[in-house]
Write a structure and sequence with these properties.
Belongs to the ros/MucR family. With 143 residues, this protein is mainly α. It is built from six helices and two strands.
């Protein structure tokens, strides 16, 4: 196998792995292939007007900030993928902390990085487990 065949095989494996994800559109698959192979033509979806840069960090959001949070998912503004919570994804995929992410897109401190339904579910579970229930009037060491 020569170098050209090996690179084609690698591109095919990368594109196939990407295509196996349930949240990827056909246009995104084609655009990935074209980026990896150096083709410049893009699909109409990729040519759609991009949202203006929202942050002082100069990053362009992958989708409008207003659409980044739904009831069940919070979407990464870096790549557009949806999650229940972003913290691990931001660190692993983009090398960012939550504070760096908020700064890059000029997001308020209150901007949720966890899906609202997931946050409520975890809070209800914590209450059921008895977490957060303590008497603030009792001093440690006094009984």
């Amino acid at each position: 196998m020569n170098g050209h065949d090996e690179s084609q095989d690698m591109v095919a494996r990368i594109v196939a792995a990407y295509a196996s994800r349930p949240d990827v559109t056909p246009d995104e698959i084609v655009n990935l292939y074209r980026r990896l192979t150096g083709e410049v033509q893009e699909t109409p979806a990729a040519r759609a007007p991009q949202a203006p840069a929202a942050g002082a960090g100069g990053m362009h959001p992958a989708l409008p900030v207003a659409q980044a949070v739904t009831e069940d998912k919070v979407y990464c503004l870096c790549c557009g993928r949806g999650f229940k919570m972003l913290k691990r994804h931001l660190g692993a995929e983009h090398g960012m902390t939550e504070a760096q992410y908020r700064a890059a897109f000029n997001l308020a401190e209150e901007f949720p990085l966890v899906a609202p339904s997931y946050s409520r579910k975890k809070a209800a579970h914590a209450k059921e487990a008895g977490l957060g229930k303590y008497d603030r009037t009792v001093m440690v060491g006094q009984e």
